[in-house]
Amino acid sequence: MRKIFAKPLNVLLLFVPIAIFAEIGHWNPVIIFLAAALAVVPLSGLLGDATEELAGRTGPRIGALLNATLGNAAELIITILALREGLYDLVRASITGSIIGNLLLVAGASLIVGGLKHGTQQFSRKDAGLNATLLILAAMVLVVPSLFSIAIEPARANIDNISVITAGVIIVLYVLSLIFGFTAKHAESVTREAAHVPHMSMRAAIIILVVSTLFIAGMSEVLVSAVGPMVTQIGISELFVGVILVPIIGNVAEHVVAIEVAAKNKMDLSMGIAVGSSLQIALFVAPLLVFISLLFGRTLDLEFTSFELIALMASCFIAAHVSVDGETNWLEGVMLVGLYIIIAVAFFFVPFATAVH
Predict the structure, then answer these.
(1) pLDDT tens sequence for the chain (357 residues)
(2) Beta strand spans in the chain (E)
(3) Which residues are CB-contacts of 74 (< 8 A; sequence separation ≥ 6)?
(4) Rounded-to-integer distance, Cα 142 and Cα 317, Å
(5) What is the Cα–Cα distance from 232 to 223, expressed in whole angstroms?
């Protein structure tokens, strides 16, 4: 337990009260946003530590699912609050940004760290093949509503209906993929993992998980309330905030866990977290947000910008190609991170270029 709270990252917990005072005192929106974002980082880290403790007692498949699910908790909270504030463009951008970030930045960083330490690393080829198929499926189903809109310029009601129906089908596909993953006979993991050494009791892990989630919810509300004023003040786009900043802030816990387990040569778990998180965002979180948006009186349609579609398709196809053979190395990781940097720069300049033209 002491090792968990002694991590240098937890110094950033000081930003929790700072963010609260900044919000109450109506400080500069940029300061409020940064303070809340920095507060979410260590809170997500604590959430990740508790999740890893629970995952370590279950095995790689269930562990990866736990890490992906609870690792997405912070971002899910942020996006629900954004829906409540009417920031639908931000939510759509965060969906694509999370998928892109996990497939390129997180997976890439994991491959670099693991590859430099252990050389060529291997993981279950059957799981990788299934995940690669699901990635391509996820890309296609998220693209359909946008292509429909581009093709025939339908009425808004049609787009909303297509989005709701698509969301329902996607959730069914995700649930069935989980059932298949846990019931079908797979080859055993190709890597031998060391026995899990517990750092805290189950009770302590659950308490930390619940408390950190509550604080993340509070900091997320502060962060979301500052987005609009901050975007106006410093001139960056809501698209860039959604695609790049929100996913990095919200997913920092699973980012760290995926890289750490890759360094320990646990590539089944590392790839399960990175790819599994992307699949969960595309096949569960995105459609879930569509249904949640109905509670706020306006449907979150799945109509993405052309820039988001291109980045999403490229990321899914490249990540599927890299992982399908069940082997990785540091060079493949460098390629993935390099592509992410290019996409991030493009999203930063796209709104300005569009405005000029």
Answers:
(1) 555 555 667 788 899 999 999 989 889 988 998 998 888 888 877 877 777 777 666 665 666 566 666 666 777 888 888 898 888 988 998 899 989 998 999 999 999 999 998 888 888 777 777 788 888 888 888 888 888 777 666 666 678 888 899 899 988 888 887 788 777 654 444 444 455 555 677 788 778 878 887 888 888 888 888 888 888 888 777 788 888 888 887 777 667 778 888 888 888 878 877 888 888 888 888 999 999 999 998 889 888 888 888 899 888 888 888 888 888 889 999 999 999 999 998 888 876 444 443
(2) 121-122, 327-328
(3) 40, 43, 44, 47, 216, 220, 249, 250, 251, 252, 253
(4) 14
(5) 15
- Tokens of residue 94, six digits: 């965060």
Closest CA to 110 of 244, 4, 269, 251: 269
Extract the tokens encoding 291.
């249904």
Buried b (16+ CB within 10 A) or exposed e, 283-292: bbbbbbbbeb
- Amino acid letter at 344? A
Taking the domains of the chain in order of start, what are their residue ranges? Answer: 2-356
CA distance 185 to 258: 25
Choosing among 3.90.950.20, 3.40.228.10, 3.50.50.60, 1.20.1420.30, the CATH entry for 2-356 is 1.20.1420.30
Read off the amino acid at residue 300: L
Identify the H or E element spanning 58: none
The vertex-231 CA angle with 230 and 234, nearest 5°, equals 80
Nearest to 45 by CA among 304, 236, 252: 252
Closest CA to 92 of 110, 79, 81: 79
- The model's pTM is 0.80
